[in-house]
Predict the structure.
Amino acid sequence: MVARGEIARFWSLESLHMVSADGGTESSALVDDNGSEEDFSYEDLCQANPRYLQPGGEQLAINELIGDGSVVCAEALWDHVTMDDQELGFKAGDVIQVLEASNKDWWWGRNEDKEAWFPASFVRGYIRQCRKHTGMFTVAQLATIFGNIEDIYKFQRKFLKDLEKQYNKEEPHLSEIGSCFLQHQEGFAIYSEYCNNHPGACLELAQLMKQGKYRHFFEACRLLQQMIDIAIDGFLLTPVQKICKYPLQLAELLKYTTQEHSDYNNIKAAYEAMKNVACLINERKRKLESIDKIARWQVSIVGWEGLDILDRSSELIHSGELTKITKQGKSQQRTFFLFDHQLVSCKKDLLRRDMLYYKGRMDMDEMELVDLEDGRDKDWNLSVKNAFKLVSKSSDEVHLFCAKKQEDKARWLQACADERRRVQEDREMGMEISENQKKLAMLNAQKAGQGKSKGYSGCPTAPPHQGLHPLHQRHVTVPTSVPQQQVFALAEPKRKPSLFWHTFNKLTPFRK
């Protein structure tokens, strides 16, 4: 039981570190005698005093400002609750006057009428300084670099407060934290957007870092905010590392929790819930990669009509040749593409076989699949082989299809079943692609297709099929011996490593 108590105490400390690392959304501000904020660039520090660039130089700069009579203030990033008279309590957003900063960990400051020590690490960050320099950063660049890290910070603050309420300081082994994870499990979904945005953030930063002024700017921010000696891409990697850690840490806690413990069932459920979160992030990552290819496929289709395919669909499940038969007995050879929610029909050009013409689509949400035996169909009075029907649930609409071979028909029947299952699973997982991401995919596809002949755009064939396992098999299995950087990779063991994972592994010394 002692081991479990130590793990429970670690959760409180770990979550506090989580807020510190992920929540750098504000920064301390240096204020002159008139109370106005003044920005200090890396070059200004160099010119003023080269000593500021040495270890401890940021403290030296702040102390010399204080010694010169300047009023130096810092804005609190989160609450600091304390029962110790020697420590300064405050709430997130409070402005604290820094009176002395000779210690790198604890500063002496004043809040309202009280003077006391407060942790220096509670006042730091990048985003606010970046927003001040509109000449260096556009709104789009900041959105790419930082993603929704501010939303993660707000979520983690609330999660931390609730987690601390569940921690039993007197008897740590009796702490019950499982319910806290279950209460917030839907909120963890915001990490999906951040993780999917991270590769773009790395690319954007890499471009900016080619210029000295950006390297100097980010280093100046780090020095002035008392941040540890890690580059900004290391800090931006922290949310990815943390969301990977949760299943590992819960598995470890579960190992030291007996089945008789009051928190056992909740811890077990929390472990499954956090594995599902990691699974959801992987699925969204796969979907985002898929929609770009689907958008390029649509642009290659001649005479496309109606809504974009991405308005309702995000993955291709199956494609192939089928003969569509009318009630009058006429046959039409068509190429069909089965996406989630819809079946698209195209016709090949007689001469240019790589060119596809749009012929229509069917709403799979409104259709019911009917398997037909070989022989005469009683309803249509036609002789059929390897056939099946799609029958509307709300109207008299009926479509009859015939495959060339029995095995082709079997694949289509299985694909239609998979389409219904995946739609249901995505609904259960809360799988959604934002409208902005869809619009961006279509815009990029249209730009790439400009100036190219239809049918020769490089995408006349179907985008890759999505070979996903059923929902209950998609969970990320996380043995406790697996390093945290491999958690995501477990869901995609055969995928070629991307820039995202290369960057992740490159920065592993930052892991704690």
Observations:
- The longest helix spans residues 264-300.
